[in-house]
Amino acid sequence: MKLYNSATHQVEDFEPINTSEVKIYTCGPTVYSRAHIGNLASYIYWDLLVRALKANGYTPKRVLNLTDVGHLTSDADEGDDKLEKGAKKEGKTVWEIADSYIETFFKDFYSLNLLKPEVIARATDYINQDKELVSLLIDKGYTYETSDGIYFDTSKFARYAEFANLDLDGLKAGARVDFNPEKKNPSDFAVWKFIKPTENHAMRWDFLGKPGYPGWHLECSSIIHSELGETIDIHTGGIDHVPIHHTNEIAQSESAFNKKLANFWLHCDFINIDNQKISKSLGNVYSLDDLRERGFSPLDFKMWVLEGTYQGTRNFTFEGLEAAKNRRLNWRNNIALSYQDNAPSRDLDSPDSHQTFLDNQKSKILSPVSNNLNSAEAFAYIDSQLSAPNDFWQFVDELFGLNLLSDSPDISAEQKQLIIDREAARANKNFAESDAIRARLNSTGITILDTPTGPIWQYLS
Ligand code: AMP
Ligand code: ZN
What we know:
By secondary structure, this protein is α/β, with parallel strands linked by helices. Helices cover 43% and strands 18% of the residues. The chain folds into three domains: 2-268, Rossmann fold (3-Layer(aba) Sandwich), CATH 3.40.50; 288-400, no CATH class; 413-459.
């Protein structure tokens, strides 16, 4: 496989540290509100990564974290804890907020048919590991204490600017006036925050003689170390994580353990909606339920995401989603319509040549996906193979998780025949006949829509 590595700014051949298990870490959601479709797109890309690794014979071990503490409203260790703020707003406890949004997150996650990560790690379950890591950093002289916490001194980690190509001098010059005067460098970050007696922070743990809670970046370093070890194969996240969150994870982990944190770093770009940022003020923070209300299934959205690639900003529109839905239904309908039931391809009669034919078809899909996750190119090939045998579609389903087979409408042989006859009538421009067949189909509970990607059927609701 080839993957674009943000650490080296180039596409590289993927080589796992250990062939028996590929260690992957995905920065997960902060569970104080429902994930919007932009957030969810990132998990769709990383699901494709895991499925592509599997299709190439690897056994991935993936860890996904859930941030339920310490993520402040500003990434620069300022503002309120997002969870505490969310709890106040909804009149609930922080634990209730976290529990309810974790539940919603996984409902969304599984309705997109995403594979379950091998380890799901909730940040507050790793507080002891956090404390150990902070103690190690203190002992090694990487930190200093201020009135509000323990800070990592980024000037002590020589490679700090490297990963994100940061301009540290510029950062210093541009430091805001209200920049915490106790910080030695603008880029220094809290590994542990103290809770002042006047402060109302419900999630608290005693450490260093006072109540406090972990800095946001710390959880990922602790969880990776406890669940996967010192160096992992692939670390994924959103592109916004590059300059602060991942830069800080690297500084903490590599200073503490003297080992490279990750060999490959994959970052997905953002999704805009109608060419605008996703934001509350624009009223475009769509959840999967908002899509459902407009008649789209979560898998239509997954199809739309996989029609593009994880690098480069994407522009979401409902017209685009409609086209993705039609394409997915067109594929699905062709499976149900297919002329064979696991029989050899119509063009070939011997089982051997069927296998060769199938292997060739599969490789036409797997090779673009193995080339930096180019599902868009694989989809174009699938469009040209709509009458492929069922084992082809099984492969497509395993690689993309679109539930094409299980979601296929169960239609009768008579309905199938009517659809085929109608296509023939249309091809002969016999529109009176095709309309008559459509009416007969309607009477059996099915409606036919003609779309740019071909006719699709749906149950009449
Ligand atoms: P949060 O749950 O708030 O920590 O956000 C999770 C992640 O979703 C962010 O860090 C981004 O990487 C990603 N994200 C946020 N907005 C978008 C977007 N519009 N498109 C794609 N990814 C996004
Ligand atoms: Zn992280």
